[in-house]
UniProtKB/TrEMBL annotation:
Localization per record: Membrane
Annotated family: Belongs to the multi antimicrobial extrusion (MATE) (TC 2.A.66.1) family.
Molecular function terms from GO: antiporter activity; xenobiotic transmembrane transporter activity
Organism: Apostasia shenzhenica
Topology in the lipid bilayer: Multi-pass membrane protein
One GO cellular component term: membrane
Name listed for the protein in its UniProt record: Protein DETOXIFICATION
Lineage: Eukaryota, Viridiplantae, Streptophyta, Embryophyta, Tracheophyta
Length: 492
């Protein structure tokens, strides 16, 4: 399977042996296990962070190129990116996470043939989901007007969104492929492909927008093309690489069987992730309803941009946690799965805490990297304590969500998210923020929503702490028996 994946795939047994070796003193066992697990997580998380960062850069660069065409074009691209594209991105990424659970556990159990079938099933479902999304994109202008946007901005945003329709189906193929590779601890090739593509994307965007003068539609079409380049390159790697020779056996009619049950898991994954993705976007939307919202929106925009960049690190650890836990459960290594949860949570927490300290040190100057003006700088400085707390919570919560995906707890976490975020967090933010309540403005809204995140994090910590990992191994084996079409171990 190649040196890297072979090392990572076979390290679970070594980790389990270290943790189970009662002849070694406890501190020696913990030290050796921590060193091994940290090395495995770094090899998984670092390339994953790069992939998500590059994806973020591609969308942001398209927005920047569009912004240089004029204020209307900037507003249109921003609305198309943050209002409509993020919806499709979150939905497709969430549905693709079903592959993360099944492929990760099947790979750990050495049922390699099923990974390719899971990949194809997920792609079929996501492509089908892309059709109604494309219809929504096609009617984006009246939808945006219905949501209260100015007709001129809605018309320009609709042109941008039309160019993103091919991107929907690139998402449909990309996320299952990405999770298929991650489940095998093959993450570096996706990082290399993403880096090469973003360079090409910048060159093509410059040529299309400035030289060919194709405007918003051209910029959006280049973004769609760039995503399809990533898909094609990753699929070519799967077909040609020796590292995937056991997990990809070509196209199979099995991809069209068992779709209803696969859809249930995909929907649970999508709901869980979308509820998380949309939560802090709602913060900005609610702040826009405040009296004199300009300063509040400007300062929140700066803070949310910083939070978004830092969140990419947590998403990388989310992927690493999901892969490690699902692999270890599939391989019947309960101690390794539990230990991996502890190590990845501590590493992510330490990184986020350090970043939060840095932010608090530069709180008075941070806004000048984005905009001029002492008023905005003062507002950002006041919000930085809330930003720091959010970053610390985001250092823990996505990792625990990754653990949930690795264990197959998506439906449970979706219910927790609904209760903590939308029953408690958003109403509390509204009461604290607006004049009919405490009238604390943006700080009040953010305080309420931090409360929702804190409660959700505490619940996930408690559930994870109370988890019987031997039972999770048993559930993983039962899940694999249910999803394995052959009902027999593929490799003995």
């Amino acid at each position: 399977m190649g040196s890297d994946s072979g090392e990572i795939g076979g390290s679970g047994g070594r980790l389990e042996a270290i943790l189970s070796d009662s002849s070694l003193p406890l501190y020696r066992r913990l030290l050796q296990a921590t060193c091994l697990e940290t090395r495995l997580l770094t090899k998984l998380a670092a390339p994953a962070v790069i992939v998500y960062m590059v994806n973020y850069v591609m969308s942001m660069s398209t927005q920047i190129f569009s912004g240089h065409l004029g204020n209307l074009e900037l507003a249109a691209a921003s609305l198309g990116n943050t209002g409509i594209q993020v919806f499709a991105y979150g939905l497709m990424l969430g549905m693709g996470s079903a592959v993360e659970t099944l492929c990760g556990q099947a790979y750990g159990a050495r049922k390699y043939d099923m990974l390719g079938v899971y990949l194809q099933r997920s792609t079929v479902l996501l492509m089908a989901t892309g059709v109604p999304l494309a219809v929504i994109y096609a009617f984006s202008r009246p939808i945006l007007i219905l949501l209260g946007q100015a007709p001129e901005i809605a018309s320009a945003a609709a042109v941008f969104v039309y160019g993103l329709i091919p991107q929907i189906f690139a998402y449909s193929a990309n996320f299952p492929i990405q999770k298929f590779l991650q489940a095998q601890s093959i993450v570096a090739p996706s990082a290399y492909i993403s880096i090469a593509t973003v360079v090409l994307h910048l060159l093509l965007s410059w040529a299309v927008v400035y030289k060919l003068k194709l405007g918003l539609l051209g910029a959006a079409l280049v973004l769609s093309l760039s995503w399809w380049i990533i898909v094609a390159a990753q699929f070519l790697y799967i077909v040609m690489s020796r590292r995937c020779r056991l997990t990809w056996a070509g196209f199979s009619w099995q991809a069209f069987t068992g779709l209803p049950d696969f859809l249930k898991l995909s929907i649970s994954s999508a709901v869980m992730l979308c509820l998380e993705t949309w939560y802090f976007q709602i913060l900005v939307l609610i702040a826009g309803l405040l009296p004199n919202p300009e300063i509040a929106l400007d300062s929140l925009s700066v803070c949310m941009t910083v939070s978004g960049w830092v969140f990419m690190i947590s998403v990388g650890f989310n992927a690493a946690a999901s892969v490690r836990v699902s692999n270890e459960l599939g391989a019947s290594n309960p101690k390794s799965a539990a230990f991996s949860v502890v190590v990845v949570t501590m590493i992510s927490f330490i990184i986020s805490a350090v970043i939060s300290i840095v932010i608090m040190c530069i709180r008075d100057y941070m806004s000048y990297a984005f905009t001029e003006g002492e008023t905005v700088a003062a507002a950002v400085s006041e919000l930085c304590p809330f930003l720091a707390i959010t970053i610390i919570l985001n250092g823990i919560q996505p990792v625990l969500s990754g653990v949930a995906v690795g264990c197959g707890w998506q439906a449970f976490v979706a219910y927790v998210n609904v209760g903590c975020y939308y029953v408690i967090g958003v109403p509390a933010g509204v009461v604290l923020g607006f004049d009919f309540g405490f009238g604390l403005g943006a700080k009040g809204i953010w305080t309420g929503m931090i409360g929702g995140t804190f409660l959700q994090t505490c619940i996930l910590l408690w559930v994870t702490f109370r988890t019987n990992w031997n039972k999770e191994v048993q559930k993983a084996q039962e899940r694999l028996a249910t999803w394995n079409d052959n009902k027999e171990p593929l490799l003995k």
